[in-house]
Amino acid sequence: MGEMQEIRTGRHCAFAMHVHLVFVTKFRHKVFTDTRLRRMEEIMRSVCTDFECELVEFNDEDNHIHLLGKFPSKVAVTKLFDSLKGVSSRRLCQEFPDLVRHYWRANKLWSASYFVGTVGGAPLSVVKEYIEQQNRPV
Question: Which segments cross the bilayer (predicted)?
Answer without folding.
Answer: none
